[in-house]
Amino acid sequence: LQDRDTGHIPWLSERRSSIDWKFSKRYQKYLNTRTQMSPRTILRSDELTDSILDMMGDPHSNQNFDRRGMAVGQVQSGKTSNYIELICKSADAGYKFIVILAGNTNDLRAQTQLRVDRGFLGWDTRLNLKLSQESKRTGVGELLGEDITAYRASSLTSANERGDFNLKVANQGLFVLGGDPLILIVKKNSSVLRNLVNWAKSLSPGGSEQRIDNIPFLLIDDEADWGSLNTSKEDDDPTVL
Length: 241
What we know:
Layout: H1 12-15, H2 22-34, H3 39-55, H4 79-93, E1 97-101, H5 106-121, E2 154-155, H6 167-172, E3 182-186, H7 190-202, E4 217-221
Parallel strand pairs: 1-3, 1-4, 2-3
């Protein structure tokens, strides 16, 4: 279902040939050689993620945009694999800041981060947050013939149980939004999200009260069916964790 009145113009077919699909091609190679997923399923996932990407905003557009949508899948139907492929394609196309909301517990968040390590980053964030020669390869990073240093991306969260977004850790790194893709896997927790928003605002060239323009941002809510119970009074804001 699509809202035809938003003025959105499909952009992927026009830009496809100019995009270096390195992250997504590497992930598809991983699916074909390291998983039990059938070629038909891999092809269908490729088609679906192309469709979703085309409905998202063009990251190279000169206009600000705010695009929102929902993808629904059955339990154990490959939803995580689907959005990891979407992340790969988004990074290839030019999205620079990617955040995944991964449940409300440390183990769910760490489990999702581990899947992202294997499918997108290529190294184990439990040992290193930044890619280096000492990084332990995992998933796509273990594929033969692939130079992992050619796939530059960063993360400020790790697959450790306590590896959620942390202001102290974030402030230790010299990150410039808009460079290599930055991906964060965080809990749906008000204090974590508040710290993340404040940190991102602090990187704005115009000051912490100014919006950050020209940084294509992708937010994926992996647990969209989970939310806080609204125990507040009627007409008040919903209760938060």
